[in-house]
Specification:
Layout lengths: L1 H36 L14 H56 L8 H26 L7 E4 H11 L4 E5 L5 E4 L1 H17 L4 E6 L3 E5 L27 H11 L3 E4 L9 E6 L3
Parallel strand pairs: 2-4
Antiparallel strand pairs: 1-3, 4-5, 5-7, 6-7
């Protein structure tokens, strides 16, 4: 009878544990579904405590989310590139004649010294400035093919840190950590992120390795309302900004099969976290 009683207790405990485990799996499925619906492709669930089959499935789901995020980023970048090429072409076609005609008027003796000169000069300067800006963006957007190599991140980040000695840096990168990427493009991406952080009032920067470079700062947070717009070409909240830094940075990483994205949740102690990832 004692054996039967013991077996009964074991069965009850097993059923209770099994039910609790299934509830946890159901909650995991709900969280993953909501993350995908909200396009939070940096969302990951831990695999600790799972059986080997469940662990393999969760790891596959985590990787699938990352791959979907990269694919969407690539498609988005390519769409913006096509649109930008059309817009720059049309803007150049529209502004070049305006600049030429206004220049001809400014050189005409009947205009010099009259009340019309100031207005025509404003038109000329504005059209020339717009044409130069669009042309400079067009040249920047015509990126060279990346030269992929193995970058040792500790030494690499020391070089970046030396460019900004006034910032308080926190580096958490294993000595053996490497990234297969174009070194010059990665440098430009990091410089763009750090420059933006400084302009947002950051005094501390944290860079850590978690299957990618997580770059955080304590500057002003990015408003939730514009989180999905910051990578759009020409979008900026700064009065003197061009709005091309983040879009080009993302384009550089996507060109290598990676991505640059804004983390949905910042690293604790910081306001903004970007994730730089690359294949391999």
């Amino acid at each position: 009878m004692m054996l039967i009683g013991t077996l009964g207790v074991v069965v009850v405990l097993f059923i209770g544990w099994f039910y609790h485990h299934q509830v946890l799996l159901r909650d995991r499925a709900h969280l993953m579904r909501e993350a995908i619906r909200n396009q939070e492709f940096t969302f990951r669930l831990p695999v600790k405590g799972l059986f080997f089959g469940e662990r393999a499935l969760q790891e596959a789901l985590n990787e699938t989310g990352r791959d979907i995020g990269r694919l969407l980023a690539r498609n988005e970048v390519e769409s913006w590139q096509r649109l930008t090429r059309v817009l720059t072409h049309e803007i150049m076609n529209a502004t070049t004649p305006i600049a030429s005609i206004s220049q001809a008027y400014l050189e005409h003796p009947a205009i010099a010294g009259t009340v019309y000169e100031e207005g025509i000069r404003a038109i000329h300067d504005t059209s020339r400035g717009l044409a130069l800006f669009v042309d400079s963006y067009r040249k920047l957007a015509e990126l060279q093919e990346p030269v992929i190599g193995e970058v040792y991140l500790n030494d690499f980040m020391e070089g970046i840190r030396a460019l900004y000695p006034d910032l308080e840096w926190h580096l958490s990168i294993p000595l053996s950590a490497t990234m297969c990427t174009d070194q010059n493009m990665l440098r430009q991406v990091l410089i763009n992120l750090i420059r933006n952080a400084c302009e947002a009032g950051a005094t501390m920067v944290d860079v850590r390795w978690k299957k990618g470079l997580w770059v955080s700062n304590n500057g002003a947070p990015i408003p939730v309302a514009i989180e999905r717009e910051i990578f759009i070409p020409f979008f900026t909240t700064k009065r003197t900004g061009s709005g091309i830094g983040l879009s080009l940075s993302r384009q550089m990483m996507v060109r290598q099969g990676g991505d640059l994205c804004l983390a949905q949740r910042s690293v604790p102690g910081y306001q903004v976290t970007f994730i730089i990832s690359c294949v391999g």
